[in-house]
Amino acid sequence: MIPEAREVHLSRKDRKVLEACCRSPVTLQRDLKRARIVLLAADGRSTRSIAKEVGVQPRIVSLWRHRYADHGLEGLQDKPRPGKQPIYTKTTDKRILKLLDKPPPQGFARWTGPLLAEALGDVDVQYVWRFLRSHKIDLVARKSWCESNDPNFTAKAADVVGLYVAPPAKAIVLCVDEKPSIQALERAQGYLKLPNGRALTGQSHDYKRHGTTTLFAALEVATGKIIATHSKRRRRVEFLDFMNSVTATIPNRKLHVILDNLNTHKKNEDWLKAHPNVQFHFTPTSASWLNQVEVWFSILQGQSLSGTSFTSLKQLQEHIDAYVNAYNDRAEPFVWTKKKVRQRRFKGRRITQL
């Protein structure tokens, strides 16, 4: 049964709004039908005739006639709907965060989505994953850090950085360190052709060891060139032998040598007395990254050693020597860009000791 039709009276302002709504090409269909219903009702049309012209049920026409008569243009808007109550709330989110602060179940290295859902008991694992993604929480990624507890960190860092940005006149600055135990591994290598026609390079998992070598290297800060030699061991005697070869290569020049805090680099006062042109500078404790030769060791690993195979220790050493020669032909100095090097404690860091 259709309710009794309400009489609709349109003001001039409301009529202009509704007519503009009907003419606009971007008006939603639902809003267009509501506007036409009210305009036709204001012209005195019956509910059934309006329903037939607009293409809706008579009860829909009656609804919007009453809504406009009672509330005006605002009555033509949809009323807020309560909708379904969410299953999970902010309390659920707090429970997940609180659980992440606790150690994972015994025997597990870290929390996973299923482990969190199982521990919570009443939370679906898909919601756990959505929550972690929305808060950019990665359960797998790990960050490492190193804090220097050297009380003289500032002075030592300033000394080393000063040699990079303002080296002494008529002196050579060298960064010296060792890359120990480089293995000569023999692996089967070649190309693997997949059924789809794609070719991949690869190597076998099994390998044969042919010994190790320790590479002593000195990087000249001004030119970026490398002086390198091989040794079987990494003792003080091998280090001093390398320094003897370096001083012989660069005679009659003042040398400032940057070293890390390895024990073999220290307590060499007798050697320094015999070489008054050489001065050692040490990076702060746990801050060997200040030594530029560490950057070159990373380049060596990536460009020369990774994915290679050697049938003898001599072949490995010749391979490294060939790379050093090729590198020196195109060597460029590293540019120090860090403006500040300071000792700062991590704040707000949470460390769990099990």
Automatic annotation (TrEMBL):
<feature type="domain" description="Tc1-like transposase DDE">
    <location>
        <begin position="173"/>
        <end position="317"/>
    </location>
</feature>
<protein>
    <submittedName>
        <fullName>Transposase</fullName>
    </submittedName>
</protein>
<dbReference type="InterPro" id="IPR052702">
    <property type="entry name" value="MscS-like_channel"/>
</dbReference>
<dbReference type="InterPro" id="IPR012337">
    <property type="entry name" value="RNaseH-like_sf"/>
</dbReference>
<dbReference type="InterPro" id="IPR038717">
    <property type="entry name" value="Tc1-like_DDE_dom"/>
</dbReference>
<dbReference type="InterPro" id="IPR009057">
    <property type="entry name" value="Homeodomain-like_sf"/>
</dbReference>
<dbReference type="InterPro" id="IPR047655">
    <property type="entry name" value="Transpos_IS630-like"/>
</dbReference>
<dbReference type="Pfam" id="PF13358">
    <property type="entry name" value="DDE_3"/>
</dbReference>
<dbReference type="Pfam" id="PF13565">
    <property type="entry name" value="HTH_32"/>
</dbReference>
